[in-house]
Amino acid sequence: MNELKMLGKTTLITGGASGIGREIALKLAENGSDIAILDMDEKRCPEVIKEIEGKYKKKGLFIPCDISDYELVKKSCDDAIKKFIKIDNIVCAAGYGSRVAIEDMEIPEWKKAVDINLNGTFFVIKSLVRHMLANKSGNIVIIGSATVETGSGGGLHYAATKTAQYGIMKGLSYELLSRGIRTNIITPHIIDTPMLRKRYPDNAETNAALAKRVPLGRIGRPQDIANVTLFLLSDDSGYICGANIIADGGAIHYLH
């Protein structure tokens, strides 16, 4: 068996009930990490925790949490610290977008993307950063999006807030790196997630058309992003700091 790269670590993940967040939670647990998940999905998230604890024999904690509410996020993070004593890693995987043209976009729709993608990312990191600084160590990975390059995939509000996440990553890296905390962002493109399937149905014709947009020749899988996340959180990537890791099968450059 390969060395468990996350043995003895604890990771807090937002959006861990499905899609990329779920696969990250399972991949990290497989590699030895205890997992705390902040998510609103009270149906699917307990199933993920059950797999973490049953299959991988790691500690799991599901905290129902609306990450757009700072006070609730702060309490949820404090509860995670009480259970695990130390939080080593943060993965911000929660995200929201919808394909609505700007002329049809209502203000609440815009604010929802800002609340989840931008404010939620900031609230979670702010709630844990003093804890990490006290331990003089930590890793933060943000799941971004290729929409920052293409403008497509989730509406203007999605593109704007995902671009802002890139700014958060850069600012955090500048502020925290000398104090022991690494921050990086991953940029996926066409990944087979529930968000993708809201726009593209899962059938042979659609999947073939999507695969043609990827030079590698296939749609990305959540596991692909989970593998990159594992690498960025492990000591193997210890010299990678403030980086944007593009994991898109070559699609961004193809589209440009």
Strand and helix map with partners:
Elements: E1 10-14, H1 19-30, E2 34-39, H2 45-54, E3 60-64, H3 70-84, E4 89-92, H4 107-135, E5 138-143, H5 147-150, H6 156-176, E6 181-188, H7 194-199, H8 204-212, H9 222-233, E7 244-247, H10 251-255
Parallel strand pairs: 1-2, 1-4, 2-3, 4-5, 5-6, 6-7
Helix pairs in contact: 1-2, 1-9, 3-4, 4-6
Folded structure, characterized:
- This protein is α/β, with parallel strands linked by helices and 256 residues long.
- It has a single domain, classed as Rossmann fold, CATH 3.40.50.720.
- Helix content is 48%, strand content 15%.
- The chain is built from 10 helices and 7 strands.
- The chain has a 7-stranded parallel sheet with strand order 3-2-1-4-5-6-7, sandwiched between helices.
- Helix 1 packs across helix 9.
- The mean pLDDT is 91.
CATH superfamily, by name, is NAD(P)-binding Rossmann-like Domain
User: Can you tell me the CATH architecture?
Assistant: 3-Layer(aba) Sandwich
Approximate shape: globular
Estimate nothing, just give the exact number of structural domains.
1
Beta-strand fraction estimate: 5-15%
Low-confidence stretches: none
Q: Strands across the major sheet, in which order? A: 3-2-1-4-5-6-7
Task: Average the pLDDT over all residues and give the rounded result.
Answer: 91
* SS-based class: alpha/beta
CATH topology: Rossmann fold
Order of helices and strands: EHEHEHEHEHHEHHHEH
